[in-house]
Amino acid sequence: MQSYKDLEVYRKAFKLFVETHTFSLELPKYELYELGSQLRRSADSIISNIVEGYGRRVYKADFIKFLVYSHASNLETINHLEKIQMLYPGLENKAKSLAREYDILGAQIFKFIEFVKRDWRT
């Protein structure tokens, strides 16, 4: 492994971030800087914390800490998507689809955290 870009969780999170960012721009104008901004920031936080954790990977505890932050941001992103499903029926299907993908990502991040705890060599 030569880069954080080699991590499957990073690649999936980045792909979802791009999809989520584009989706957030479909919200009504008055939500672009409220719920839309929160959604974009939480989705970005997932990948940013993976990258920062990887940058600190020589300190196993730091790597784990940032992966936990990433997992928490993933849950926050799902929560924002659930709010969108309830508030904007026209966007419900896409929000549900994204939430399912983030649920899968959350499981992958959790498994990666467990791998790092158990097998990561600094």
Automatic annotation (TrEMBL):
Domain of life of the native organism: Bacteria
UniProt xrefs under Pfam families: 23S_rRNA_IVP
SUPFAM superfamilies the record matches: IVS-encoded protein-like (SSF158446)
Gene3D superfamilies named among the record's database cross-references: 23S rRNA-intervening sequence
Name used for this protein in its record: Four helix bundle protein
Organism: Algoriphagus halophytocola
